[in-house]
Amino acid sequence: MTRGWSLIYEGFDPDQEGLREALCTLGNGYFATRGAAPEAQADVVHYPGTYVAGCYNRLATRVAGGVIENEDLVNLPNWLLLTFRLDGGEWFSVNAVELLSYRQELDLGKGLLLRDLRFRDREGRETRLSSRRLVHMRQPHLAALETTISAENWSGRLEVRSALDGRVVNAGVERYRELNNKHLEPLETGTLDEEAIFLKVQTNRSEIRVAQAARTRLFRDGELAGVERHTTEEPGYIAQEFGLDVEEGGQATVEKIIALYTSRDHAVSECGHEARKAVARAGGFEDLLESHTEAWEHLWRRFNIEMETPAEQAALVLRVHMFHLLQTLSLNTMDLDVGVPARGLHGEAYRGHIFWDELFVFPFLNLRMPEITRGLLEYRYRRLDEARAAARAAGYRGAMYPWQSGSDGREESQKLHLNPLSGRWVADNSHLQRHVNAAIAYNVWQYYQATRDMEFLSFYGAEMFLEIALFWAGVATYNNELDRYEILGVMGPDEYHDGYPDANEPGLDNNAYTNVMAVWVLCRALELLEVLPADRADELRDALDLGAEDLERWSQISRKMRIVFHDDGIISQFEGYDGLEEFDWQGYRDKYGDIHRLDRILEAEGDTPNRYKVSKQADVLMLFYLFSSEELGALFKRLGYAFEYETIPKNIEYYIQRTSHGSTLSQVVHSWVLARSDRPRAWRLLTRALEVDVNSAQKGTTAEGIHLGAMAGTVDLIQRACTGIETRGDVLRFNPCLPEEVRRLRLGLHYRGNSLDLEVTHETLKVAALRCVAESVTIGLKDETYALKALETIELPLS
Ligand code: BGC
């Protein structure tokens, strides 16, 4: 249940625990820890997981007669471990007691996880347990857990155990369990002083050292209690136990403060030394809480979207989405060498890999704190050489970025994946999604549009962009007969189609999305060379060996790329799509109920989606998501294809009927493309997209990690689709279109260094300039433009 600024769970439900752990994850963009119970170890109900952004390790496994290698975001030592027992009895576990009450609350405003429960044990003793937990938003290496134990009807000896456990493995995803999962080897354990323990481990291939230090203090009725401690050490594990007497009605509070460092961190001498130092310097829980809460207050000031709506649940889930976005990508991320992990730092699905999903995440960041986008784009820049090597190995010039990316930027897509329905290992061809390259170029351009950050564009963005353009120009082949260029043997975003039904080789020809995106990249690449300072453009021409003939080829391809159509104006998802069979949607719904993952269902039946007109997710419709109709119209015109206004609704209707939404990104895109033509339907799709994680609408996969792209996409729907913001040319354009359910929308924006406040109702658009770096900002509404000066407000009627 959600209320106000909180996600609240009443009662303990073992079946829901995995989901709650993912949704109650606390993080700060540097690391995150799932909302697991501190007394629990990984078992069928619980999965404590701690992940540091960018901390990967590779392991090889023999499966299906071959050896496959996978790189995973590593589950790091569990720092949460804290449990207790009374008078030498059983260690506390929710399974061993009678729960009298149980409540868990995620406070989104303060970034706090609260747990409050009462229980009666076998001896009839009644105890209350309340805890508060935080992962510090301003001091990214610190986290804290405060637990208060109240003796309601007993007096006796309370014993507490506080541990750091590095014996953990990556076991958070059922489907990966056949794969090797032991990434950590123990290095060192020890005590620091009376109060603190220390653990150091290392990932066994990438050799990243990880150090944790934990200081545990005990307070009796608010006073620090001096206690004797007993330490247990095993390879990869260290625990401290201590006890004190508690009187009936009395309380003991245990405060555990931890520091976490790795050898990848900046400004460290040795990670163990830093962890020790940090824990010694850290204040108590209350001190940390104060600065942590303040950091969250600042974040919310910048990022919050106020939505006046009777749909309170929707408003709250949007806040949950923003919360998790900011926990995965925050100010602390800016300076790290990390990308946008598709499943957050909240679980192990997709192994913490980085896909094209940043395309859905950056628009949210670009208009709020573009510095974060910049840091994340630099992750791509640092892997440009690897992308160049991949292009060369495939016989192309330029840079070919991988579909899935991890530590060094090589292709991390798995070669085989397990279909849990059939138990078969199936070839995975998703690396053929070359469109990820277009997404990276698009993101560079959008970042520049929102910021005008010429330094970034000159020294990082342009080089990536031009290398990607070179790649597309190399991949496109000329078809003499048609006098058109083609892109053959790729996959579009729709992962149900990886080849032609009876072909020996995977890959599809002329995927419309890929071809149009390649054209867009080539057009912008030509423009980019004009926009860059002349000396920098010359340097890049020299460095990338870009000649006049290259530019001529770009220009040619951008005018003659092939797009295939069928049924009088339907853009074919790929060449040959028209010849595929229609799918028996109703029959399969009746037979299976949930048919999100038709690929798995059909494979288990010995069939393949390649035979049918079925899409996992928006593919052609991505074009209407990414481009305004004017921009898309201009691209089609350049290509010499007719693009009537009706093209859009006609294509939307066609593909919407043939899409299963097997990817969480899909509903976001569909909602977006319907936002203007069919507001009630768009709202319904948005509400479904809002259900994906909080209600785990996708058959429980949220327990393995949130869907960051879809989360960001829903927020961006409100931020950009409802306001119609477009950062094209030198005008900040608006075209508001609120859903019926939203009465008023207020949000702050950062646009090219200017700080704006926006208020939209069904009647008016109000833009206020709070801070301007330029003399004025040019605002556009319909065909009119207005100059908005600092501290001025413009109010425009929308009728
Ligand atoms: C989707 C991809 C997406 C990936 C990671 C897949 O299910 O089909 O488009 O990039 O998940 O979120």
Q: What distinguishing features does this structure have?
A:
799 residues; alpha+beta; eleven-stranded antiparallel β-sheet; 35 strands; binds beta-D-glucopyranose
Word description of this protein:
The chain has 799 residues and is α+β, with helices and mostly antiparallel strands. It has 20 helices and 35 strands. Strands 1, 2, 9, 10, 11, 12, 14, 15, 16, 17 and 20 form an eleven-stranded antiparallel beta sheet that branches. A hairpin with a 2-residue loop joins strand 28 (726-728) and strand 29 (731-734). It starts with a strand and ends with a strand. The structure holds beta-D-glucopyranose (BGC). The site of beta-D-glucopyranose has 12 residues, from loops.
List the helices and strands and how they pair.
Blueprint: E1 2-3, E2 6-10, H1 17-23, E3 26-27, E4 31-33, E5 50-52, E6 56-63, E7 66-73, E8 82-86, E9 98-107, E10 112-120, E11 126-135, E12 142-151, E13 156-165, E14 184-191, E15 196-203, E16 209-220, E17 223-224, E18 229-234, E19 237-246, E20 251-262, H2 271-281, H3 285-303, E21 305-308, H4 312-328, H5 358-366, H6 370-382, H7 384-393, E22 416-419, E23 424-427, H8 435-451, H9 454-475, E24 477-479, E25 484-486, H10 512-531, H11 534-543, H12 548-560, E26 565-566, E27 570-571, H13 585-592, H14 598-604, H15 622-626, H16 629-639, H17 647-656, H18 665-674, H19 679-694, H20 708-721, E28 726-728, E29 731-734, E30 744-751, E31 754-761, E32 764-771, E33 776-781, E34 784-789, E35 793-797
Parallel strand pairs: 29-33
Antiparallel strand pairs: 1-2, 2-9, 3-4, 4-5, 6-7, 8-13, 9-10, 10-11, 11-12, 12-20, 13-19, 14-15, 15-16, 16-17, 16-20, 18-19, 21-30, 22-23, 24-25, 26-27, 28-29, 30-31, 31-32, 32-35, 33-34
The structure holds beta-D-glucopyranose.
Beta-D-glucopyranose is lined by residues 342, 350, 355-357, 493, 495, 616-617, 663, 665, 709.
